[in-house]
């Protein structure tokens, strides 16, 4: 091989490596995941002797979860690989996980990111991975409460509804997803594709097969918080969850 051919091959190899490194940097900066990454068979972390919680779409274990899960094995599931989740998986594909492998599911402000038909699939996946006495704790925006507040305060879509640690939250952000994050990341899974009232959420949970749904303490008046049970809960479980005095939102058959 001539010297000119060797030089040409070296240039091609350097160009390939440079393009590869730029691609990895771009993907890291903008949190862009390959479609096939979240579709690969998810790996469930090894089971421990403690009770097991799956935090669906929680983004980071640094974000606090309720104290009643202290001492539990806490596994994070997320579609975004940059979150370093324990289970890299789209929540619509929970049927890929082993059946009855978790005692509880914690899903805070994630269910509104799925179209109505997909939300049903997500909840059916919750039932699949929950053990017989398991439950799902779910928090979503209360769209009716937001609508009432908008009317009372005379707010428009771009009006600031409240301040948060991420900055001002507008009415549009609550309805359609946090705009700055969607724009920054370029990922539409940050967008809201669904909305709930207490009645509609209870109906959806019942439709997919949860036996009982009970109101739970909400973090704000703009939030709906419920616990949905796979089987009828006993008094000890309800006390642990802080819902012993709450009336059930709905009881199924």
The largest beta-sheet arranges its strands as 3-2-1-4-5-9-8-10
Number of strands: 10
Number of domains: 2
CATH H level, superfamily name of the largest domain: Vaccinia Virus protein VP39
Strand content: 15-25%
Q: Estimate the helix proportion, in percent.
A: 25-40%
Find the structural class using helix and strand composition. Answer: alpha/beta
Question: Helix-strand pattern, N to C?
Answer: HHEEEEHEHEEHHHEEHE
- Radius of gyration (CA) equals 22 Å
CATH topology of the largest domain: Rossmann fold
Please name the CATH architecture of the largest domain.
3-Layer(aba) Sandwich
Number of helices: 8
Instruction: Characterize the largest beta sheet: strand count, sense, and whether it forms a barrel.
Output: 8 strands, mixed
CATH class designation of the largest domain:
Alpha Beta
Shape: globular
Question: How would you explain this protein's 3D organization?
Answer:
The protein is an alpha/beta fold. The protein has two domains: 1-30; 35-39 and 49-145 and 187-244, Vaccinia Virus protein VP39 (Rossmann fold, 3-Layer(aba) Sandwich). It contains eight helices and ten strands. It has helices at residues 3-30, 35-39, 116-129, 143-153, 171-176, 179-185, 198-208, 235-240, and strands spanning 52-56, 73-78, 87-88, 102-108, 130-141, 160-164, 167-170, 212-215, 223-229, 248-251. The strands form two sheets. An eight-stranded mixed beta sheet has the order 3-2-1-4-5-9-8-10. A two-stranded antiparallel sheet has the order 6-7. Helix 3 crosses helix 7 (198-208). The longest helix is centred in the N-terminal third of the chain and has 28 residues, at 3-30. 28% of the residues are buried. Mean pLDDT is 83; it is low at 4-39.
